[in-house]
């Protein structure tokens, strides 16, 4: 498999957090403008990038929060969105891209920013990329389970009032200490109003993680599962995923960095695929984790003996599972052009 053939494969990215999908050179410039001493590459890496499996959660959070601190106005948000799309297309030939973001995440650090102006900035960035490249981009609104139901209800309603600009709703953050079921009514409401539902579930290597997938499906009405890598631990969960054709948004390198799996070689991507589960391949946080989708493809080919045919199948499943309309997807998908 040559590099050019791997690049040429048209790709779908379903699981990418916009706030952590920054272009490194841009983020470094913003950090320097704020007076951070990150000129040396190792200094920048120390403050902003996760390059090896994390030792502890605080050290990773430190990097997330650093990135959040420097994305401090709407102009930067527009540039962030445009470059996230541009890099996906130019580096990995992504044609269909879903970006997720939590309005509350940036606003918590920058109370002078405005949620509507931030959304408009993201949309300007995305639209600029869609005009420049053969790609379609959809936005997923993200609720943070570490926040109260009341606060999330506000954001859920805010998203639903602007649902013309969103294709889906997601629930993220620590699933070990913050169960998903209290948010069920919010997700059922969003589903009833036509948004696609994806939920981070079954990610960390803890005993209840696989069962969290069932909560996401049965209580929150998930159409897709964010990560879901721990499904491998539970026959009942795997049978359910096969039966209901539920796609998993797998992010192998992210799983290694967060120690959800011990190594790429031990990642269950191929086993889940062999079981007939609709596995899709995604980056999670391409900026902070310093990985592109084409890198991720190379990783699973090298370490798990995944073939190009497997990757084509995964992209096919991802394309079918996208919350972006099939009409829009077909306008940029090469096979359907002629
Ligand atoms: Zn994620």
What does this structure look like?
With 338 residues, this protein is of the alpha/beta class. The protein has a single domain, classed as TIM Barrel (Alpha-Beta Barrel). Helices cover 49% and strands 13% of the residues. It is built from 16 helices and eight strands. The radius of gyration is 19 Å and the shape is globular. The two termini are 26 Å apart. The model has no long low-confidence stretch (mean pLDDT 96). The structure holds zinc ion. Residues 15, 17, 172, 200, 226, 284 line the site of zinc ion.
Q: In a few lines, what is going on in this structure?
A:
With 338 residues, this protein is an alpha/beta fold.
Shape: globular
> How much strand?
5-15%
Q: Say which molecules are bound, naming each kind only once.
A: zinc ion
Number of helices: 16
Largest β-sheet summary:
8 strands, parallel
Mean pLDDT comes to 96
Q: Structural class, please?
A: alpha/beta
Helix content estimate: 40-55%
Q: What is the annotated CATH architecture?
A: Alpha-Beta Barrel
The fourth-level CATH homologous superfamily is: Metal-dependent hydrolases
What is the helix/strand order?
Answer: HEHHHHEHHEHEHEHEHEHHEHHH
Rg calculated over all Cα atoms: 19 Å
Distance between the termini: 26 Å
Tally of discrete structural domains: 1
CATH class: Alpha Beta
- Widest β-sheet, arrangement of strands: 1-2-3-4-5-6-7-8
Strand and helix map with partners:
Layout: H1 3-8, E1 11-17, H2 24-33, H3 41-48, H4 57-70, H5 74-92, E2 94-101, H6 103-109, H7 115-132, E3 136-144, H8 149-161, E4 168-172, H9 184-192, E5 196-201, H10 209-218, E6 224-227, H11 235-243, E7 248-250, H12 252-257, H13 269-274, E8 279-281, H14 293-304, H15 308-321, H16 326-330
Parallel strand pairs: 1-2, 2-3, 3-4, 4-5, 5-6, 6-7, 7-8
Helix pairs in contact: 5-7
This protein binds zinc ion (ZN).
């Amino acid at each position: 498999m040559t590099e050019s053939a791997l690049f040429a494969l048209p790709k779908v990215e379903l699981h990418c957090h916009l706030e952590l999908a920054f272009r490194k050179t841009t983020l470094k410039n913003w950090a320097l403008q704020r007076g951070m001493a990150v000129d040396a590459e190792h200094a920048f890496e120390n403050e902003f990038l996760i390059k090896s499996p994390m030792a502890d959660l605080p050290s990773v959070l430190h990097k997330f929060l650093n990135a959040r601190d420097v994305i401090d106005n709407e102009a930067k948000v527009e540039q962030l969105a445009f470059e996230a799309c541009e890099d996906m297309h130019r580096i990995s030939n992504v044609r269909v891209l879903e970006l997720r973001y939590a309005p509350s995440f940036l606003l918590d650090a920058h109370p002078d920013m405005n949620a509507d102006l931030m959304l408009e900035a993201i949309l300007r960035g995305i639209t600029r990329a869609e005009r420049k490249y053969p790609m379609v981009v959809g936005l997923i609104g993200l609720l943070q389970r570490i926040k109260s139901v009341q606060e999330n209800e506000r954001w859920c309603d805010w998203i639903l009032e602007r649902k013309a600009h969103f294709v889906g709703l997601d629930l993220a953050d620590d699933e070990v200490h913050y169960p998903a079921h209290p948010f069920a009514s919010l997700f059922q409401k969003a589903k009833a109003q036509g948004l696609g539902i994806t939920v981070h579930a079954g990610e960390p290597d803890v005993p209840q993680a696989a069962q969290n997938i069932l909560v996401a499906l049965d209580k929150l009405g998930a159409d897709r599962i964010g990560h879901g890598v721990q499904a491998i631990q539970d026959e009942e969960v795997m049978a359910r995923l096969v039966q209901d054709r539920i796609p998993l948004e797998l992010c192998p390198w992210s799983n290694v960095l967060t120690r959800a799996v011990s190594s790429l070689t031990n990642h269950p991507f191929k086993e889940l695929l062999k079981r007939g589960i609709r596995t899709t391949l995604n980056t999670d946080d391409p900026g902070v984790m310093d990985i592109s989708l084409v890198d991720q493809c190379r990783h699973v080919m090298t370490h798990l003996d995944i073939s190009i045919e497997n990757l084509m199948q995964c992209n096919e499943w991802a394309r079918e599972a996208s919350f972006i309309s099939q009409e829009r997807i077909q306008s940029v998908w090469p096979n359907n052009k002629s």
